[in-house]
Amino acid sequence: MIAARPATPPPQAPRGRLKNPYMPVVRMLGFASLLALALLTMAPFLWMVLTSLKTQQEAFAYPPTFLPSTGPQWQNYTQLFTLVPFGRYFVNTLIVTVAVVVGQLVISSMAAYAFSRLKFMGRDTIFLFYLATMMVPFQVTLIPLYLLVVQLGWVNTYWGLIAPGLSSAYGIFLLRQSFLTQPEELSDAARIDGASEYGIYWRIFLPLNGPALATVGVFAFMGTWTDLLWPLLIVRDQNLRTLELGLAYFNSAVPQFVQPNWPLLMAAAVVVMLPVIVVYLFTQRYFTEGIALSGVKG
Amino acid sequence: MTSNSDLRRTGIWRRFWGRWNQREGYAFVLPSFIHLGLFFLIPLAFSLWLSFHDWRGLNTRNPPFVGLENYEFMLGDRRWWNALGNTLYYTFVSVPLGMVVSLGIAMLMNLRIRGVYLLRAIFFVPVITSWVAVSVVWLWVLDGNIGLLNYALSLVGIDGPDWLANPRTAMLALILIATWKGAGFQMIIWLAGLQGISRELYEAAVVDGASAPQRFRYVTLPLLAPTTFFLLITGVIGSFQVFTPVFVLTQGGPLGSTDVAVYRIYQRAFVNFDFGYASALAWVLFVFIFAATLVQLAYMRRNLGRVYGR
After folding, report:
1. Helices (H), chain A
2. Facing residue for B32 by CB, picked from A35, A44, A107
3. Residues sharing a CB contact under 8 Å with residue B119, sequence separation 6 or more, in sequence order
4. CA angle A221, A227, A229 (to 5 degrees)
5. ipTM of the assembly?
6. pLDDT class for B305, splitting at 50, 70, 90?
7. SS3 of B274, please?
8. Which of chain A's residues have a Cβ under 8 Å away from the Cβ of B119?
């Protein structure tokens, strides 16, 4: 039967590698639409940067101009820093974020090490319990957490901003996944060589799990740096404001001017966004890995 | 692991502390457990307790126990039901929209065109940008008189509304902004799912004469089912909890058209200082989220079985 078949292959399945003759066209179209979508995604940001360099009159021009017609108004930025102490806000944000990142890395990795490599009664039950806590939405604990922090006298302090973020079940989960990929023999060999559990954790597991630690650190950084709600509740003193909070207050103050100063507001948004984007560009890989990991295995 | 007979022979004290590395296990978990207790378990219990008490103001001492009164009051609270309705509207529109848009981008990415990974970074910029910065930009772009969007629309002859100030368009605008901001995140998860599908399956489908839409329907979609359900469940949970976009863009207005559940809780707690009632609302929302998650999980279990022929 097979031998009786004509030698020419059927049209939909050419001999050799299966190749769609339209693939180059599909790719071209795909690339064009991706490019268009990327432009659309970036358009608001482009508009923001352009507006931040215009004079106030030009920002209100209709129809709008694309490029600043009088040349870039860099003085918008210098004026911004005389109006709002963004330097101070930057330092505040940095202090809080660094403390939270370091705390999460240490506390979460210790717990992750115990959950993945140590043996003790109730280990897996306790871990499941940690996982279950991730299901409770934040607004359930937000109110009592706030009242607790008020009772403890931590309102308006760095500590009040830092303490609730020092450990996360998500970080423990992610690090445990990574620790589990290391062979058991590794810790056994170190134990035979007389290493303590602390030594194994500190000298072997932490250095070997750099990428997972980076992922947890980067998520903690982004979450803390861009958080608005908690600082809004905790901070009363102007000098303790974070960048987000500073921008939010500036945003609500600006429309009360006779005419909202959009260029100045856009400049403020640029200043607040910039550090996050810089950090993102250097840590892209860990984002993608972390998201893909939690998405596929979660 | 200590064998069972081993454990039975030793006393309870030795069961806990006998093995040399058990103690260390607890020591390693302790810091995170103290943190969990102080900032999660105590607040969780406190929250439930609050919801049965009439706690108003910051300096309350011995608030009266009111039983289920907070929950009863909720039944007649028209603002709360309005907020719940808006939350459902937000969820039903934004979750499918976000999933479809991000899947589209992920599939274009998956064509493996050279240099496409530079574009991936671009789609991720809105994800990492804070809501406050995003809101500043969009308030400007969506401005009814001089906004960029309405200018663009006027070029094609459409007279755009004052998006965020119009009760009929405000929620829609919020949803579009949220989609724009979240698509990059979901895109990465879709992409991971798409890259897990073997090329050979598509080649086999081509041999069988399947058209591109058929390949999408009978190869891509079934094999993406776990990713789809993950995004659906996390998407629904997330949008039930939507708060920040409302807070920074519309403050629940105009005319309560964008007032959502968590914004209502926030208002009750931190504007009216009605902490007891706000806690009750938070628990009701938690029950809704929990129920929605269970329903989806049950549905998922049944249908994933069908997909894999189990």
Report:
1. 23-52, 56-59, 75-83, 86-117, 123-133, 138-151, 158-162, 169-179, 184-192, 197-199, 206-208, 210-225, 229-234, 243-253, 262-297
2. A107
3. A34, A35, A38, B109
4. 155
5. 0.82
6. low
7. strand
8. 34-35, 38
Would you tell me how many other CB atoms lie within 10 Å of the CB of residue A71?
A: 10
Tokens of B203: 């080649």
- Crossing angle of helices B116-128 and B170-195, rounded to 10°: 140
Reported as a single tens digit per residue, the pLDDT across B73-102 is 889 889 999 999 999 999 999 999 999 999
pTM of the model: 0.85
pLDDT in tens, B211-255: 888 988 888 988 888 888 888 988 999 999 999 899 988 888 789
Mutation target among B28, B119, B122, B227 for the A interface, most CBs of A within 10 A: B28
Which residues does chain A have with pLDDT short of 50? 1-3, 5, 9-10, 13-16, 296-298
Burial (CB < 10 A; 0-12, 13-18, 19+), residue B25, is buried
Among A246, A106, A103, A97, residue whose Cα is nearest residue A158: A97
- B interface test, pick of A26, A27, A33, A34 with most B CB neighbours within 10 Å: A34
CB count within 10 Å of CB A122 equals: 12
The H or E element containing residue B175 is helix B170-195
Structure-token pair, residue A265: 């507001």
